[in-house]
Amino acid sequence: MSHRTRISSLVKQRVRELRREPSEAERQLWQHLRRRQLGGYRFRRQHPLGHYVVDFVCLEAQLVIEVDGGQHSEQQDYDQWRTEWLTQRGFRVLRFWNHEVLSSTEAVITAIWYALHGDTLPPSPPSP
Questions:
Q1: Where would I find the DUF559 domain in this sequence (predicted)?
Q2: What is the distance, to the nearest Å, from the Cα of residue 123 to the centroid of all Cα atoms in its chain?
Q3: Banded model confidence at residue 8, pLDDT cuts 50, 70, 90
Q4: Residue 67, strand partner residues
Q5: What is the pLDDT of residues 20-66, one digit of tens each?
Q6: Which end of the chain is more exposed for a tag (fewer CB within 10 A), N or C?
């Protein structure tokens, strides 16, 4: 399945803004996902899929990771619609609250590991 579509200049501009100004939780999680640190999987940050921009995606595993701040408690319908759209295209979506990433980083990384590898245990705990 190809996920390549023409990206509008407006979406490109939004992606650049999001990459320049990540939340503290996004910045912290990116330190664990970048450079194939998690089981050799490549993650992209603030990546456009269709007309949405996802926080993190591993295209190889078709896994989307969203890090939600307080504003998401008021836009649950939108988030549900977006998750359904991504799911219909073969992606699995994991959502974490900012405070989960900041206060329970190891648990978040472990949950992502399991999503990537199924029920197999990591050979050693994922590195911090």
A1: 12-116
A2: 23
A3: confident
A4: 96
A5: 889 999 999 999 999 999 989 999 999 999 888 999 999 999 999 99
A6: N
pLDDT of 3 higher than 60 = no
Given the candidates 3.30.390.10, 3.30.1330.60, 3.40.960.10, 3.50.50.60, the CATH classification of the domain at 22-116 is 3.40.960.10
Chain centroid to CA 12: how far?
Answer: 18
Tell if the pTM clears 0.90, that is, is over it.
no
Handedness of CA 35, 94, 78, 67 (dihedral sign): negative
Task: Estimate to the nearest angstrom the gap between the alpha carbon of 95 and the chain centroid.
Answer: 8
- Give the E-state strand segments of the chain in sequence order: 44-49, 52-58, 63-68, 92-97
Distance CA 4, CA 48 (A): 9
